[in-house]
Amino acid sequence: MSTEPEVKDNPDANRFEIRVDGALAGFAEYKLKPGQISFTHTEIGEEFSGQGLAGKLVRAALDEVRGRELAVLPFCPYVRGWIGKHPDYLDLVPAERRADFEL
């Protein structure tokens, strides 16, 4: 029986990871600086594709960094596109940087 995917920050690897039944299904890599986080790459394993896991991963990661009051720089095209489709997360990207990301 499948359980709900679990997203956790793995600061030692500089990435948020999503696991399905304990197996690593994907990750969102980041670079952390004081007050900001830059998302650089998101990847879902081929055997896990088509299950909506990338969206769940990004939502959970952004919810976590919102709680930490970090500014988000979405260099990763997937994260940037996801924020573009979910305007309630746009406030995480500093207003003066939104044009850089076409947001």
Could you walk me through the main structural features you see in this protein, from its secondary elements to its overall organization?
- The chain has 103 residues and is α+β, with helices and mostly antiparallel strands.
- The chain has a single domain, classed as 3-Layer(aba) Sandwich (Aminopeptidase), CATH 3.40.630.
- Helix content is 23%, strand content 34%.
- It has two helices and five strands; from the N terminus they run E-E-E-E-H-E-H.
- It has helices spanning 53-67, 77-85, and strands at 6-10, 15-20, 23-33, 36-44, 71-74.
- The protein has a five-stranded mixed beta sheet.
- The longest helix has 15 residues, at 53-67.
- The radius of gyration is 13 Å and the shape is globular.
- The N and C termini lie far apart (40 Å).
- The model has no long low-confidence stretch (mean pLDDT 96).
Rg: 13 Å
CATH topology: Aminopeptidase
| Percentage of residues in helical conformation | 10-25%
What's the domain count? 1
Number of helices: 2
Q: Which residue ranges are poorly predicted, with pLDDT under 50 across at least 5 consecutive positions?
A: none
Determine the structural class based on helices, strands and strand pairing: alpha+beta
- End-to-end Cα distance: 40 Å
Shape: globular
Strand arrangement across the biggest beta sheet: 1-2-3-4-5
CATH superfamily: Gcn5-related N-acetyltransferase (GNAT)
Overall pLDDT confidence = 96
CATH architecture: 3-Layer(aba) Sandwich
Sheet with the most strands, sense and barrel status = 5 strands, mixed
* H/E topology pattern: EEEEHEH
Task: State the total count of DSSP E strands.
Answer: 5
Give the CATH class. Alpha Beta
